[in-house]
């Protein structure tokens, strides 16, 4: 197992990467906010198939939290995370503090055109969220200058926004989307799952069950009927509040108009207790 290098400044990271780039090593970046689980490790493993050197970043980005309480309670088990990365054979971790990424006195004004999809689904519930996401991802891309970057499919809309940001800046980085990793009972792995009580954990399975229903019965009902039947899963479940369930065009996130569209995805967000969970399944 190679030693996991730890960097806290962009300068130290760039010094580490410089000779590797000079020898034409392919660099992959796996951006995370820590609280790592097997979903993150699947990103590392896929990165290893696509690059020579794997850099994981751990940074809880304040600009993408629309609720300060959410930022405050975001889990930060750093020793656990470093052990997982070392075991997975990650080469280096970049763990800057807030000052390193957002220096005092720097002009941090940021607003780019991410397209209409920014304001749909998560964008409607968490206004400004994707401006914060794309701002920090651009900063990480500038620090690492990777050849490829890995993102999880669970944040389907986020991947779309990052691709739009890449196009906006014309960055020569390949985005690889990694499939959702699920617990044995179907719950999508998430750093937020640790906040679920035992009963909430049981109730949270409704997300994957409603999505699986749409997958299994896609040919049996119209799009409108599929959405109605999926939403019916959420009736009479204590402590579960549905934010949205949609079958959307995967390129625009607008509600799908026809089953014949060649990129369809079912997406959901729900509050289980005080924990907000998202999930999706790609239909085709």
From TrEMBL:
It is found in: Cytoplasm. Its main location: cytoplasm. Keywords: ATP-binding, Cytoplasm, Ligase, Nucleotide-binding, Pantothenate biosynthesis. It comes from the Bacteria. GO terms for molecular function: ATP binding; pantoate-beta-alanine ligase activity. Beta-alanine binds at residue 64. One of its GO terms (cellular component) is cytosol. Coiled coil: none annotated. It catalyses: (R)-pantoate + beta-alanine + ATP = (R)-pantothenate + AMP + diphosphate + H(+). GO terms for biological process: pantothenate biosynthetic process. Pathway: Cofactor biosynthesis; (R)-pantothenate biosynthesis; (R)-pantothenate from (R)-pantoate and beta-alanine: step 1/1. Pfam families: Pantoate_ligase. ATP binds at residues 33-40, 152-155, 181, 189-192. Its EC number is 6.3.2.1. (R)-pantoate binds at residues 64, 158. The active site is at 40 (proton donor). Catalyzes the condensation of pantoate with beta-alanine in an ATP-dependent reaction via a pantoyl-adenylate intermediate. Belongs to the pantothenate synthetase family. Homodimer. The reaction proceeds by a bi uni uni bi ping pong mechanism. NCBIfam families: cyt_tran_rel (TIGR00125), panC (TIGR00018). This is Pantothenate synthetase. It comes from Pedobacter terrae. The lineage of its organism: Bacteria, Pseudomonadati, Bacteroidota, Sphingobacteriia, Sphingobacteriales. The gene is panC.
């Amino acid at each position: 197992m190679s030693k996991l290098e730890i960097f806290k400044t962009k300068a130290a990271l760039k010094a580490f990467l410089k000779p590797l780039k000079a020898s034409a090593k392919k660099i992959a970046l796996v951006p995370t906010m820590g609280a790592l689980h097997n979903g993150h490790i699947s990103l590392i493993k896929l990165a290893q198939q696509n690059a020579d050197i794997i850099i994981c970043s751990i940074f809880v980005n304040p600009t993408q939290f629309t609720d300060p309480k959410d930022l405050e309670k975001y889990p930060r088990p750093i020793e656990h995370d470093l052990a997982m990365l070392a075991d997975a054979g990650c080469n280096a971790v970049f763990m800057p503090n807030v000052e390193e990424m957002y220096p005092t006195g720097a002009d941090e004004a940021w607003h780019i055109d991410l397209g209409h999809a920014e304001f749909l689904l998560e964008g409607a519930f968490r206004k400004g969220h994707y401006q914060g996401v794309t701002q920090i991802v651009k900063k990480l891309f500038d620090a690492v200058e990777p050849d490829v970057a890995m993102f999880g499919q669970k944040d389907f809309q986020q991947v779309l926004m990052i691709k739009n940001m890449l196009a906006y800046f014309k960055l020569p980085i390949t985005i690889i989307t990694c499939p959702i990793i699920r617990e044995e009972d179907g719950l999508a792995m998430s750093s937020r799952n640790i906040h679920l009580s035992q009963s909430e954990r049981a109730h949270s399975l409704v997300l994957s069950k409603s999505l699986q229903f749409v997958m299994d019965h896609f040919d049996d009902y119209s799009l409108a009927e599929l959405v109605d039947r999926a939403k019916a899963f959420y009736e009479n479940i204590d402590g579960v509040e549905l934010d949205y369930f949609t079958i959307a065009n995967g390129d625009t996130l607008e509600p799908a108009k026809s089953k014949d569209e060649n990129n369809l995805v079912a997406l959901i967000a729900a509050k289980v207790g005080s924990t907000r969970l998202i999930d999706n399944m790609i239909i085709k």
